[in-house]
Design goal:
alpha/beta; 8-stranded mixed sheet; two-stranded antiparallel ribbon; 6 helices; 12 strands; globular
Length: 217
């Protein structure tokens, strides 16, 4: 399984990574959302170079010019609610893509560290033979991503799968590599080694959904 980690080398992406991790900057939820959106745009550009293109002639006012255009539009899928800003960034570049949405949440029993991930809602076009881009800002245990993909398979088998996450844990990456098909490419911003007993990435950045949209009950 091919893996790309955008934050490994110094770049503007690295600057955005520093900002979304910074607990002081995180207090501005609009800036946090916008930074996730901008990172989604950068992921989209890098990922776009792995898609399939055809050559077409484009008519200008003075003649014709050859151009490479996407062979087909991908399907962009995200896990609600935290994935929405990252999804929007991808959609800014793949602006004619079809879209899919999955609702997933962690169900804790009382104060216990153990939890299970529940899928409640799915809206998706047919994925049969399509290029699927599945995003979620945090890839912690990997359970949400795997269950979301399994749910999406009810809409058909994609030709290829791209998983996009801003911050992943080593354990989450290992789990996804075990459960996703071989024709999957991982697009990550950073990989952190530690995962707490409650499934949070350390140092990570906290709860992306709460930082973007406010604390939930």
């Amino acid at each position: 399984m091919e893996t790309h980690i955008l934050g490994e080398l110094p770049s503007v992406f690295s600057q955005l990574m520093a900002e979304i991790r910074d607990q002081n900057i995180q207090q501005d939820s609009m800036r946090f959302r916008r930074n996730l959106e901008r990172m989604g745009e950068m992921f989209a550009y890098e990922l776009s170079r792995k898609l399939e293109y055809i050559k077409q002639d484009v008519s200008t006012s003075l003649g014709k010019a050859p151009a490479w255009v996407l062979r087909e539009q991908p399907v962009l899928a995200t896990i609600l609610r935290a994935g929405l800003p990252l999804h929007q960034g991808l959609l800014n570049y793949f602006d004619r893509a079809d879209n899919a949405f999955i609702s997933a949440y962690r169900k804790h029993e009382g104060d216990a560290d153990s939890f299970e991930v529940k899928i409640e809602y799915l809206s998706s076009p047919s994925l049969q033979g399509r290029e699927l881009i599945l995003c979620d800002p945090m890839l912690a245990t990997g359970s949400s991503m795997v269950l979301a993909y399994q749910a999406l398979q009810s809409r058909g088998q994609p030709r290829r799968v791209h998983v996009v996450s801003v911050i992943a844990s080593t354990a989450g990456v290992d789990y996804v590599q075990q459960k996703f098909p071989a024709n999957t490419t991982l697009w990550l911003g950073a990989v952190d080694r530690e995962l707490t007993s409650r499934g949070y990435i350390v140092p990570g950045l906290g709860d992306a959904g709460d930082l973007a949209f406010g604390i939930k009950e």
